[in-house]
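Hi C.,

You asked whether I'd gotten around to modeling the 169-residue construct. I have! Everything is below, sequence then structure, no commentary in between.
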Amino acid sequence: MMVRYWSPFQEMETLRRQLDQAFNDVTSAVEPTSSAQWHPAIRLVESGDSYMLTVHLPGVEPHDIDVQVTREAVEVKGDRRQPDIAEGDRVLYDNTRYGSFRRLISLPEPVRNDAASADLRDGKLVLTLPKVEEVRNKVVKISLTPNVEDRETPAIAAEASATGVESDA
């Protein structure tokens, strides 16, 4: 007799993959006119005075990527081409999605799009997006005037002279 252990997390992962595939099939059937054939995964991290946007683009060449940054959003679009196979070879299984892609990412706060930078390594496009100066948390030193209680404010003096009452302030 063989004992088999039940793994609820493995069952949930299998169910999640099946639902993802079902929704992908339905989406592609409903939106056949959509120009984007796949959507790369993204990750947006706030890091002090900037944002780091990582876009996973394995198998995409740099010349096939177009990145546009505005103060409020980032658009990444391009094309992942299917690799050529040698004559006589045949593909038995390929789960990779090919074709055009487009992601439009809204940013939570405005950024300095003229100072944005990009780096593509190991299939990951990393964009550094500095926040605009107004949005950054600034520390401002405020100087206090000594002996504020000893001075009579002009408003109290003016009120006292208008009413004829002497001020105790």
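If it helps when you're writing up: The helical segments are 8-30, 154-163.

Thanks,
B.
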